[in-house]
What we know:
It contains twelve helices and twelve strands. The chain has helices spanning 38-53, 76-91, 110-127, 156-166, 207-215, 225-242, 253-259, 263-280, 288-306, 325-346, 437-445, 453-470; strands spanning 4-9, 61-64, 100-103, 173-175, 179-186, 189-196, 353-358, 365-369, 378-382, 398-405, 410-417, 420-426.
Amino acid sequence: MPSIRYLALSDLHLGQDESLLTHIDADTGSVIPDAPSPTLRALAACLGELARQAAGPAKPTLILNGDILELALCDSDHAIRTFAQFIALLAKGSDTVFDEIVYVPGNHDHHLWEMTRETQYLNYMRRLARIEDLEPAWHTTKLFAGRRWKDRVVQATLTTVARKAAGREDLEVLTAYPNFGLLERNGGQGRSVLFHHGHFIEAIYHAMSTAASLVFSDHRIPSDVFALEGENFAWIDFFWSTMGRSGRVGTGVERIYEATGDVASLRKLTDSLAHNLARRFHLFTPLDPLEELALRSLFRHVVERVAGRQERQRGAALRALPLSEEAEKGLRWYLEGPLRNQVEAEHQPAPDEVTFVFGHTHRPFEHVMDSGLASQPVKILNTGGWVVDTRVPRPEQGGAVALIGEDLSAVSLRFYNEGQYGVRVEEPLQPGGTHSKLWEHVRAVVQPDREPWRTFTDTVAREARVRMHHFGR
Length: 473
């Protein structure tokens, strides 16, 4: 019976008051960063049970697939201190849940990648004999870093926090961006699990590439991850991962962030920006009205191309795949373009069987998709999220954990959906397909009417209601 080798979570948004895994005062809604939330305690108990009952002799690897820390909409110390609570529950003492951590940053914690890559580049410069040999900075890591992590990239800040919280000097937070891959080969056949936070499936996260394509006729949105990140990293880092911590200026960022989910609201902001730029600067003409008109037209064109409603803010779609048509198109583009190109650049031939794990949308689901990424249909697992950001339940939103076996089979452990609370095991299957041995193994361990699963369900239902009560107040 295959055992669990990897646990993957995303979108914890630690430190944000709307996160179920951030401890808040039930009466005031204010953050209490130095104590674990009831949901976090209950989740840790469940993950500990999985590690004891469904993992092999070796502890699983924990894969944190983006937006783990909330660095855009709360103080960084709240995010870091809440992360310490998370680590203390999962990695302290003899009953630790995992043996190593792989961190794949998303958009809300993108700055952690910027810190890491700049440190990596500095270390590279120190090793050079001559500064004249310096090469351009890189914006990505290798996809298949290897089980032994020959090309180790360590996130220094989180490693420091994790060691203090767990009391373990051997603990490291290894970092991959924007993709991380596991690969096993059996003769000529290959099986792979590929991880990406999911932000690049939405056009707004390659807005700078889109803007350049509107200005320069020979420019196209890149189909390789190095160029895609290289053109858009500053935009992602500024707006989605750092600006919310900019002192008093940052207090208005959440309003701007929410406006990006509505074209009319975002258009008002960009019209105001065009007016102020034209009045204060003469970018290409001394005539303010003409310059304002040109800037407004350009900004509106970009808004129409990259905005609309963000995927996590959309209402439930009555479609087989719980993504908007735009997001589904973006998912297919990312699989068959940037991700496939990185696979082929690092490993030929491409794997026959691929499972793609992502989050970002806060909507957990399982799906099988025909794709040019692999010779067989790609299995899709979305790990949802742990944020409650509405006043009423949205059943399509919820949190899940992707469980990966030693043979790289994959199942989803759905921990909750808003208003439909109850732990269950799911697996992406084609019509007529049969469940894997890993699904059978995990389903035998997860008994929703027994502990610790029953306590988790009761806890998350209660805590979700608390966040709904405080949302928008």
